[in-house]
Design goal:
Radius of gyration: 24 Å
InterPro entries: DsrEFH-like, Sulphur_relay_DsrE/F-like
Structural class: alpha/beta
Keywords: Signal
Distance between the termini: 60 Å
Order of helices and strands: HEHEHEHEHE
Oligomer: single chain
Strand content: 15-25%
Pfam family, one: DsrE
CATH class: Alpha Beta
Number of helices: 5
Strand order of the largest sheet: 4-3-2-1-5
Length: 149
């Protein structure tokens, strides 16, 4: 009798687990409901993989059909991220492609002072903000999505 109860209990448990495992959650991706979206991508690291990843992430967002022709992007570099905008580094071609797609490149002036980098060492298409942290705070309060891949 105890064996029968154990077998029946196990059978009920397995049936419940199988039906639970077969249930699919219904997932619906977010929908685009606004005319315009704003995203601030921030980079403060000099790592080549991180620098290339942020460029790839921006391109992916610009290609998302839900955001196509609705997305304004600002790419903000501060701290080690200044490496992305230095003429001596190999990112010009990738950045020019982003610029052609409307991405605005912005460099923190505090970083330039701290690292003793002259603006002439950066690509000509780079814009400047007094403070990277200030830019993040102000954009956040303007409702921008802040993204740090």
């Amino acid at each position: 009798m105890k064996k029968l109860i154990k077998v029946l209990t196990l059978s009920v448990l397995l049936t419940g687990l199988m039906s639970f495992a077969q249930e699919k959650t219904s997932y619906v991706p977010a929908k685009s409901i606004n005319q315009e979206y704003n995203a601030l991508y921030i980079i403060n690291e000099a790592d080549d993989q991180k620098l290339k990843a942020i460029i790839r992430n921006i391109n992916n967002a610009l290609e998302d059909q839900r955001l196509k022709d609705k997305l304004n992007v600002e790419l903000l570099a501060f701290g080690g991220g200044v490496e992305m905008f230095l003429k001596k580094n190999p990112y010009q071609e990738l950045l020019v492609k982003l610029k052609k797609r409307g991405v605005v490149m912005v460099q923190c002036e505090n970083t330039l002072r701290e690292k003793k980098i002259d603006k002439s060492e950066l690509f000509d298409f780079v814009n400047y903000t007094p403070s990277g942290n200030g830019e993040i705070i102000l954009r956040q309060y303007e409702g921008w999505a802040i993204i740090k891949p």
